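Researcher: Let's do a round of design. I'm pasting the structure tokens now; please hold your answer until I've finished.
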């Protein structure tokens, strides 16, 4: 076999290892987020801690983020704390209940990271009417085929909200 084959094989092995390491990192952070924020499975815990709902957010090309319950005090302090996410995200269910699917960390200070995972940057103007900020979604309670840190989840829907209207 020629040298190019071996170079290709080595690069392929490194790419697979990097992908596995990234998935492991995502699974580890998602597990830490679940452990630190499991109390939010009951939406009453979120409201008791000062979180308030904003409308269900759907993606233009499908999928959704769900209903964000936002803690305005955490949003204003710019701190990144694993156990104090700025938003807790719920998927509305057909029976009227809300199912915890993810949390979101938001800060204006950056570049930002949590446990080594870099946040995404949203410039201004943006669809939220906010100044520039950094955000990280962690899909800790619902698997996201586009990644544990993607903004939208194709497995989440706001359809139950539309039926309630």
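Researcher: That's everything. Go ahead.
Model: Designed sequence:
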């Amino acid at each position: 076999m020629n040298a190019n084959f071996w170079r290709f094989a080595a690069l392929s092995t490194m790419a697979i290892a990097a992908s596995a390491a990234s998935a492991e990192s995502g699974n580890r952070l998602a597990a830490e987020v679940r452990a630190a924020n499991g109390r939010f499975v009951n939406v009453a815990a979120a409201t008791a801690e000062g979180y308030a709902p904003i409308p269900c957010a759907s993606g233009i090309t499908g999928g959704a983020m769900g209903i964000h319950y936002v803690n305005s005090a955490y949003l204003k302090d710019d701190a990144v704390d694993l156990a104090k996410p700025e938003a807790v995200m719920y998927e509305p269910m057909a029976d009227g209940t809300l199912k915890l699917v993810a949390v979101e960390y938001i800060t204006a200070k950056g570049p930002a990271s949590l446990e080594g995972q870099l946040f995404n940057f949203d410039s201004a103007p943006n669809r939220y009417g906010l100044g520039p900020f950094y955000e990280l979604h962690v899909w800790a309670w619902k698997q996201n085929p586009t990644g544990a840190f993607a903004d939208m989840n194709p497995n989440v829907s706001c359809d139950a909200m539309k039926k309630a209207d």
